[in-house]
Amino acid sequence: QVQLQESGPGLVKPSETLSLTCTVSGASFISYYWSWIRQPPGKGLEWIGYIYYTGSTNYNPSLKSRVTISVDTSKNQFSLKLSSVTAADTAVYYCARHGDFYYFDYWGQGTLVTVSS
Amino acid sequence: DIQMTQSPSSVSASVGDRVTITCRASQGISSWLAWYQQKPGKAPKFLIFAASSLQSGVPSRFSGSGSGTDFTLTISSLQPEDFATYYCQQANSFPFTFGPGTKVDIK
Questions:
Q1: Are B55 and A105 in contact (CB < 8 Å)?
Q2: Closest approach of chain A CAs to the CA of B18, in angstroms?
Q3: Which residues pair with B48 in a beta bridge?
Q4: Taking CA atoms, what residue in B is nearest to A4?
């Protein structure tokens, strides 16, 4: 079955860059969109952006200036970089898959990233 | 951005109750709406797409309806495993946005 797994540091200092990787197994990487979504503690969900297997991207305008999503199809992985982080970026970060209709059908378990000195 | 609102923000119900959650979009999104269920410490689970289509494996007691700006999620007979927070999400236009969630807890 399709599985997504986030990995990366759980603690990042203010002003530094948050970096996470999502590894996909049990499914073809081709022909799907791969997104990052975050959820601050006790709050709702915010879509960060997606990458298509070809490398094309689309970012949430609220984060666009700080976000880069990249893909490595040879490893079935895609990655998130969020620069100049502040405490407001503290959240559980999820990776997720969607098809042409933009519904998120598979999610990773999520990883908590805390921004603190 | 399209703003999504949900009501109520929380509801207390008993096993066997019928529960209805409402989601409203700030502008028309046709039927481009999904519903998710999230339990504490877990990732959201995909329940319904295209406003009313049940994802494979989701129990038939869940149903969705609506189009345009107003949508509902109904649980016909609440089961113990249904106590969770439910989110709607619009898939009509970028950026994708979610509602603030409705928590269903035990009365």
A1: yes
A2: 25
A3: B35, B54
A4: B43
